[in-house]
Amino acid sequence: MSRTFTREETRRLAAILAETAQTEVMPRFRNLPDGAVRGKTSPRDLVTDADEAAERLIAARLSRLYPGAVLIGEEASARNPALLNMLVDADLAFLIDPIDGTRNYVAGLPLFGMMIAACHRGDVIAGVIYDPLNRDGALAVRGEGAWIEYENGRQAALAVASPAPPEDMDGLIATGNLPEPLRSTVNGNLSRLASTASLRCAAHEYRTLAAGHCHVALYNQLTAWDHAAGWLLHREAGGYSAHFDGSPYKPTHRTGGLLYAPDAGSWQAARRALMGDGMESAET
Length: 284
Fold this sequence. Notes:
The chain has 284 residues and is α+β, with helices and mostly antiparallel strands. The protein is built from eight helices and 14 strands. The strands form three sheets. A seven-stranded mixed β-sheet has the order 3-4-5-6-7-8-9, with helices on both faces. The protein is globular.
């Protein structure tokens, strides 16, 4: 991999998200006028004026720092799905999720985040997940670890939870987009874990996972901007993840689901507990 990303560059990504949160996201929180919320593909898939304004500002700042970089934002991709095809060959591309957890944002729930992932030829090389309310960022650089930076400048390393048997695992499990019969299988097996929940916000779920406050996460809908930064955060915090068949994830993949755990052994145990033994697993 020829293109790398430094910690200082990654901090600049966090600074862009912090500026955007202050100017575009938080002033509109619990203050959206009539007509500022619209549906996209379904009544649960929302976009707001805040999403669109935030994405424009983030893109402008990234273009200034990295002229020629490919910018793939959630809202721009909704208008032009072909943008995602540029991820494979781009020397430098940025995946932008201006507000993750838009349904929570619209509902006035203080549980949403902002994400940027830097990619080189389809590989994630850096990622930031920013919390606009607490004004801190979870950052990761490929090969250099993951950490959280607080508003006062304090830093703390991130580390996933210790391995545990399924009956002691806490999980963040989203089953709504699983196909049948897998959806019914997983829903029927949730009680095999100690607890399960969904925050309706991948940004905070990934931060919770990478900080060691839960063991397992499961997703099926693999929109790249929702997962690339969090995947790297979890990996650099020491965790293990793979598609449901055991194959490795890349942000260019749009199917196959994702399962996260502290290590390969607990990944296998969680997969058996949630999905049973009927799915063939690739060697990992």
